[in-house]
Every structure is written in structure tokens, then in C-alpha cells.
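pinned: reference chain
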Amino acid sequence: MSYRDFIDKPAYDLELYHKHADVPQDAVAFIGSARQHPYDKEKLLLIVDEGTDEAMLLEFRVEDVLSAENLPNPVTEKGESYSKVKLWIRRGAVGVRYEPFEVDTPLRYIHIIH
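pinned: its C-alpha cells
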């Protein structure tokens, strides 16, 4: 399944913070396009560097998101815009990075996601 399968799904409904004073001190920031997890409402997906060859898909638990901020919406070469957010994830939380690979012996990891 490609990360592009999640682009058309609705963005995750997060409580957004607008004051920089509210930024948690014990968190790490991730920037990307947030999407609802396809089957687990307690998790969210974040598409990082969407629209580039270096794009990756990250998964976090919703309870580990300490703060979120809307960023300006980028526009693709086709003129389509998509939402972008900055999420502050609790330091020490466990995230999952989805990484495609080719089934072979040994496994061959694919660094470009289409």
C-alpha cells in the first residue's frame, strides 16, 4: 500500500494550538500531512515530505500528540493543495515508520516511495 492511498482520506481532527508559549518542552516536532488511521481511531498517520521522492509514512498514537499547529497548505505541480501540520510528539513515545521493501534474499529496501 502506497502512502498516496491515504492522501484522499480526511485529515485527522486535532486540537490545534496557536500560541508558541503552548509548545511542550518535552516533545519532538514532526511536520507533514496528518491522516486518520484506516482502522484504529487511537492512532494517526503522518505523511512526511509528501510529494517528494523522500516521502515516508509515520504512525503515532493520538494520546502521544501533545500539541499541533496548522501550517500553510502547499500546492502540487497539478495545482492541488493539501493540509500540512506540525505535531509535537511526546518524547519517549513509540512511533512506527512504514518502509517498503522488495521480497528477496536478502530483503532489498526501497528508498523511493511512489
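why pinned: The chain has one domain: 3-93. Residues 3-93 form one domain.
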